[in-house]
Amino acid sequence: MSTTAVPAPAEGDAWPAEIPAGVAFLDLEVRGDGSLRAGAMVSGGQPWVFTGEHLSQVEQVAPRVAVLAGHNVRRFDVPQLERLIGTHFPAELDARVVDTLELASLVFPGEPSQALDKLYREQSSLSDPVQDCLESAQVLARCVRALPGVPGLVRSVARRLLPPGATRDLSPAEVT
């Protein structure tokens, strides 16, 4: 697969231990005209940056990952990727999606915003898909650490509201 060179994650951006092997984070940066500016998949802290030239490779890789994660990945990145490649992914992929926006909204309902911080934007006007994937991994790790403290009633409601699959399965069914 062809890749674009990207800087290694900064010292403070260690890959969270809470993220199991096989989880790949996806982020797309789409221009106003709908074309792909840049995309990234990050697994185990290792980034793969791609452009429109690599969409056929992304089409082969994305449905094969054990878990596809990202911030708003279910409602933005996956539909945009399907539009860009001109086909729909198999329905069973949805059951393997972990959307950190959905999960953080349920685990941290009192926070004023669930948007990524994107602190790197202080130095750049463009969003960086690798940095967004890394920040999404940090959000997922934070959610996983906080899940045991979420009241049972909230977990129970979350299991009813979330679509079947990986995000919902992170929340235990029992009410405590």
Could you please describe the fold and organization of this structure?
The chain contains six helices and five strands; from the N terminus they run βββαβαβαααα. It has 176 residues and is an alpha/beta fold. Strands 3-2-1-4-5 form a five-stranded mixed beta sheet. The protein is globular and about 45 Å long. Residues 1-12 have low confidence and may be disordered.
Tags for this entry?
single chain; 176 residues; alpha/beta; five-stranded mixed sheet; 5 strands; 16% strand; globular; disordered N terminus
- Overall mean pLDDT stands at 84
Distance between the termini: 47 Å
Rg calc: 16 Å
Shape call:
globular
Summarize the model shown.
The chain contains 6 helices and 5 strands.
Produce the secondary structure layout.
Layout: E1 23-30, E2 36-43, E3 46-50, H1 55-61, E4 67-70, H2 73-85, E5 97-99, H3 100-107, H4 129-146, H5 152-161, H6 166-169
Parallel strand pairs: 1-4, 4-5
Antiparallel strand pairs: 1-2, 2-3
Helix pairs in contact: 3-4
